[in-house]
Amino acid sequence: MLSGAVFFNALDAAGLDAVAHEMRDWCGGHPQSTGLYHYHAHPACFNDLSFGHSKLLGYAFDGFGLFGLTGESRAPLTNADLDACHGHTHSVPWDGKWRDLYHYHATHEYPYLIGCYRGTPGTVGVQPAEPVPGRPRPVGPRAAHTR
User: Fold this and answer.
1) What's the CA gap between 17 and 72, in Å, rounded?
2) 98-146, pLDDT tens digit by residue?
3) What residue ranges do the domains of the chain occupy?
4) How far apart are CA 10 and CA 99, in angstroms?
5) 3-state secondary structure of 90
6) How far apart are the first and last CA of the chain?
7) Whole-angstrom Cα distance, residue 62 to residue 60?
8) What angle do CA 51, 29, 48 make, to 5 degrees?
9) Model pLDDT for residues 37-82, shown as the tens digit of each residue
């Protein structure tokens, strides 16, 4: 995330929906057992209000941008608006210019942030989570959550 916090996938250590089962603070994040503060969904305290497409929240391990809750129509997006990886392609502001780029979006629906990688994730200092049978590959480091 551009703020320095990290996004984990939607699952807790038991493989359950972390947003539904984990205690989170007023912003929607929490620390894991090692103290790493992270989010499993769009942070409630992040100002995502804009006059159009949501702002850039951060980057996935594959380098694609992750944007907030609203799309080009200024309405909150749903999973039906996005592909299996939770993204789509259209013109977005990038490096001071408008470019047609694939990018991910946050939604209020599971998997909340990213459902799988569209590109090839980098591996420097990161251990991607194990895939969950029947679901696209989750995104983020394996979280050793406490309950």
Assistant:
1) 28
2) 889 999 999 999 999 999 999 888 865 554 444 444 444 444 443 333 3
3) 1-147
4) 29
5) strand
6) 24
7) 5
8) 0
9) 888 888 888 876 666 788 888 899 999 999 988 888 888 899 999 9
